[in-house]
């Protein structure tokens, strides 16, 4: 399966030109002459160099990796059909076996791009972390080095001790119970679903605590709950988490707001910024585990 460089370049250019800065949460200046987004804007959204993206549009680049294609899919707000077309033009097979909730819904992307003053995350119904904004990254850490299949908040809570260390110890038991009860509800909604079965099997094999809670057969969808975090740089901080679900309940938006009078935590997170890394969070992502 070879790369179709000219067609790939044309598709990328046309996809870029049909977007406006507002579509991706950018401010449109008064003297903007470029139709659509600029090349450097797409490159920044995709996390690649402007020179590399320019070579893609000029049909001069080597074959892009599937990781690059996934980043471009997000940056250019491609539909599933457009994503598959992009992969084929680049000489790769499109992703197969996509399960419910795996790809970000446009409505979730819209909210994620615009709710930039508070930490926000998007998760699948099974707890897979799909995306987070800059404020959430400053709060929870970057998961860029964590394999995609391991970015599940339930899995990480029960298998990575470092994740629990960033929560107040007195809340560990209740967090565990709520996570399992919520997962039980999601698994039941999915019915005979391979991804759900695989996750539960993996969790039961990896954690006796999870297995014991799972066998209790408690069911409770998490809609709102307080968070008491032990941030490695800011110390103990508190947030209220509101959970907004899609109509199909396959994706959730988690919005973290400070309690009344607690906006100081947000100010400190802005100072840290999205590029801030904790030694643990850079490779683990702190409270992605609850």
From TrEMBL:
SUPFAM superfamilies: lambda repressor-like DNA-binding domains (SSF47413). GO terms for molecular function: DNA binding. It comes from the Bacteria. Coiled coil: none annotated. Pfam families: HTH_31, MLTR_LBD. InterPro entries: Cro/C1-type_HTH, Lambda_DNA-bd_dom_sf, MLTR_LBD. Residues 36-83 form the HTH cro/C1-type domain. Transmembrane segments: none annotated. This is Helix-turn-helix domain-containing protein.
């Amino acid at each position: 399966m070879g790369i179709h460089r000219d067609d790939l370049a044309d598709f990328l250019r046309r996809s870029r030109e049909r977007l406006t800065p507002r579509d991706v949460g950018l401010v449109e200046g008064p003297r903007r002459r470029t139709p659509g987004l600029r090349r450097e804007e797409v490159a920044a959204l995709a996390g690649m160099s402007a020179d590399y993206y320019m070579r893609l549009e000029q049909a001069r680049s080597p074959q892009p990796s599937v990781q690059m294609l996934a980043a471009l899919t997000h940056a250019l707000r491609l539909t599933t059909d457009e994503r598959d077309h992009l992969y084929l033009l680049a000489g790769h097979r499109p992703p197969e076996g996509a399960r419910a909730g795996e790809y970000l819904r446009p409505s979730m992307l819209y909210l994620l791009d615009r709710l930039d003053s508070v930490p926000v995350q998007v998760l699948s119904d099974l707890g897979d972390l799909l995306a987070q904004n800059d404020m959430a990254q400053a709060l929870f850490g970057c998961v860029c080095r964590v394999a995609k299949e391991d970015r599940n908040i339930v899995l990480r809570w029960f298998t990575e001790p470092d994740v629990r260390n960033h929560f107040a110890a007195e809340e560990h038991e209740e967090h565990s119970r709520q996570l399992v009860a919520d997962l039980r509800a999601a698994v039941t909604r999915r019915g005979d679903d391979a991804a759900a079965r695989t996750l539960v099997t993996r969790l039961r094999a990896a954690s006796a605590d999870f297995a014991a809670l799972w066998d209790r057969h408690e069911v409770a969808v998490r809609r709102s709950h307080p968070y008491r975090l032990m941030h490695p740089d800011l110390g103990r901080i508190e947030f209220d988490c509101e959970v907004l679900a899609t109509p199909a309940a396959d994706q959730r938006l988690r919005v973290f707001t400070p309690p009344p009078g607690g906006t100081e935590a947000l100010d400190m997170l802005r100072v840290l910024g999205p590029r801030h890394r904790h030694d643990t969070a850079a490779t683990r992502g702190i409270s992605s585990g609850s």
